[in-house]
Amino acid sequence: MKHLLFSVLLSTMATVGAQAQQPIYLDHTRPVEERINDAISKMTLQEKIRIIHAQSKFSSAGVPRLGFPDFWTDDGPHGVRPDVLWDEWEQAGQTNDSCVAFPALTCLAASWNPTLSHLYGHSLGEEALYRGKDMILGPGVNIYRTPLNGRNFEYMGEDPFLTSTMVVPYIQGMQALGVSACVKHYCLNNDEENRFNVNVKVSDRALHEIYLPAFKAAVQQGKVWAIMGGYNIYNDEHCCHNSITLNKILKNGWQFDGVVVSDWGGAHDTDQAVRNGLDMEFGTWTNGLTTGASNAYDNYYLAQPYLNGIKSGKYTMRELDEKVRRVLRLFYRTTMNPQRQHGFLCSDAHYDAARKIAQEGIVLLQNKNHVLPIQLKQGARVLVVGENAVKMMTVGGGSSSLKVQKEISPLDGLKARLAQAGISVDYARGYVGDVTGAYNGVTTGQNLADNRSAEELIAEAVQKAKSADYVIVFGGLNKSDYQDCEGHDRQHYALPYNQDALIEALAKANRNTAYVNISGNAVAMPWKDKVPAIVQGWYLGSEAGEALADVLCGDVSPSGKLPFTWVKDLNQVGAHALQAYPGVWRQAGGAQTPGNIIDEEYKEGIYVGYRWTDLKRQQPLFAFGHGLSYTTFKLANLRADKAKMQRDGHITFTVNVTNTGRVAGAETVQLYIHDQKASVDRPVKELKGFNKVWLQPGESKDVTITIDNTALSFYNEAKGAWNAEAGVFEAWVGNASDNLKLKKQFVLVDE
Prior knowledge:
Layout: H1 2-21, H2 32-42, H3 45-50, E1 59-60, E2 71-75, H4 105-111, H5 114-130, E3 135-137, H6 160-175, E4 180-186, E5 198-201, H7 204-211, H8 213-220, E6 226-229, E7 233-234, E8 237-238, H9 243-253, E9 259-261, H10 270-275, H11 304-312, H12 317-333, H13 348-361, E10 363-367, E11 381-385, H14 410-419, E12 424-428, E13 438-439, E14 442-443, H15 454-465, E15 470-476, H16 499-509, E16 513-518, E17 533-536, H17 544-552, H18 574-577, E18 584-585, E19 598-601, H19 610-615, E20 633-640, E21 644-646, E22 650-659, E23 665-675, E24 686-695, E25 700-708, E26 714-716, E27 721-723, E28 727-734, E29 742-749
Parallel strand pairs: 2-3, 3-4, 4-6, 5-7, 5-19, 6-9, 11-12, 11-15, 15-16, 16-17, 21-29
Antiparallel strand pairs: 1-2, 7-8, 10-17, 13-14, 18-19, 20-22, 22-25, 23-24, 23-28, 26-27, 28-29
Helix pairs in contact: 2-12, 4-13, 5-6, 5-13, 6-8, 13-17, 14-17, 15-16
């Protein structure tokens, strides 16, 4: 026994001794800020500079002497991008960097399901961990201001409340694993064309009510660890080093304690980068050889120029230590986190997650005569038409380009499902769009070449359609230049590649025609009234074909709701109606004039999306929040738990939802607030709550939505603060922004 006690004593003393010798910055029992202080005190000036700028295309240096490893980022709008060469965009040729492609974020937003958003972030985080990534450059939360924005597919729609609600669980799901999310592109980065030259002019009210809420929610509710600045300019300063958006709003106003990361090439000035809130600089386009440096990364604005400025006394250590503090805080949350978990790549669970998200995001826009779902009758004949039925969509688009382990096409998904029911599937090309399939060395391996004329392609499809029981047309956009892609906006609202003529001809030839639009944007549909069924199919990733087959065949009842207003034409978009897009160049020559700036004034102010169509009393093609099901629902008996709400209180609304149809399904109850009288102009209504409910046939459930006075507030420009005015409000409840039949009045009081 004595020997045992003595051994325990020696062991305890050894442990205590080891702890006593361990530096504070490595002691996990000490507070993080204390550890950061200790680390900073031990770092050299050169080490401090090294960790605030890139050392390769997607990495920054750690502090090897102190045990801090290098920090690795990667693009990840809807999957972990393949590894690239050290300082090139071309892929490195790895064999273990394939991934699961999750649906694009427009699809996630269309699910109106925050639980799926958490699953999305968690699943993507596990893939990132396996690949050795410490930060994923996403999610994107820029507002859908115009349907021409080439990058809308990476974002979550037009409404600040919906986007705010969906981004928070995504962040939480990812960061719980010790992988940092990096919310982008902060801020006002709402179009791609001339994105480096655009100087946005916007009212403070529109800035705070429309364009900032999702970022604010990411910071204050999601506790995001990183934010990426946008390429664009605001108030004549680039957003990657903007004194108002970064220092005044983000860091001082919202108390953001994470890092501000430059977009790749988004830094332009050392003085502004030092003083205006940039913490980590990535991707700056320098050429070290012509400037006398052996390493281009040494020439970054926050590299040697910053070091020289400190040595000369131009800059103080105060700004540098603040940047280092934030970067070290990021290290402790990720690479130095002892609770960090292990990752998984291309697991069954990840494919299941991708399929589930896709299923819930698919939107049934129109279904006349109950054309859908496809009736699974033995011997039926289904014709699939369109390039988008076979074209891989995971390659291309810019930062969203992925190298996937698999991508099931809509045609293959339908073939596999219908074969189970003994239904034959034929295919006709219908149109030829983009036959390429390569981006930065990632290739699809597809040969989509077809030299037939548009007339020949349509004639073949029509001939086959005449003898088919169903015609399913897969069209829309793709991720080619001037479609849905990074770096360019769309040049027009119409469908490309002569698709309108094809769709109209097929609808005339077969009354059971369904059109599936593959895109991240709305498109013009001049043939809408001639096509019985219309489905929005998004970019669905690896499980695209499986998920679409699930919905088209009725295995899953669609439950997606539009996250943006689907306008008839661009005149129903405020930015276009007011000729406020793309802006006015300051000098002649446009983008070809070096240093030229294009001023883009957001003349529509707060009236974006349904707020604009409500203001102008316009009926869009499909309303924000619209989405049908294979069953029907009845909403009734709206009530509130009180008639008066105190300024510091809340109010809960309850509505009964019944599945009145014959199949199981889900409905999303949407609550909008109408301010009956205000001292400022306010939208007719604004989304302030929603709740998705699943019901069996005949089943009823009460659904509750609770709000507080933030749902009643507007941004007061004179006070520079949010303000909820006492008075009478109405809650409007329904299942789409144009179908709000239930209304309940209540009063906000100060007593």
